[in-house]
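Bumping with the actual sequence this time:
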Amino acid sequence: MEVEMKIRGLMMDPVTNMPIVILKDVGSDTVLPIWVGVYEANAIALEIEKVTTPRPMTHDLLKNVLLGMEAQVEKVVVTELREDTFYAVIWVTRNGSPVSIDSRPSDALALALRVDCPIYVEDEVLKTSKQAAQISDRVTADDLRKWLEGLGDDDLGRYKM
């Protein structure tokens, strides 16, 4: 079963200094942190803040290609968490036929923001993520999840490179 999520914000992991995209369940306080690369976080941040660039970024190019091919992005789904790596699929419809495209979650999320399509996470990913946090040697993952769930709007601020 898929759980609809929204991008709640971006923040820096204070331990690893890596960007984290915070997804939040639209129907509850459940959050899912996904660590991403700096370039992907920048692409997401630019779209969140509606910053236009003089030339198309890679995700803008992908959007333009899909529009040029008269394809519609229906949704993106974070489908799996395996060995601390998240996997995602972009669902596109063209000429009435659905097509699934394998993707990194960060790229799928950046595209979802640009085409304004829904974001989903498989409920098994949410369960696996919680279990991984519980059995992990790093207490910080579980602590981070609890801390993220308690964040307010003022706590996230703007993402800074």
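The tokens above came from a reply further down the thread. Confidence is low (pLDDT under 50) at residues 134-139.
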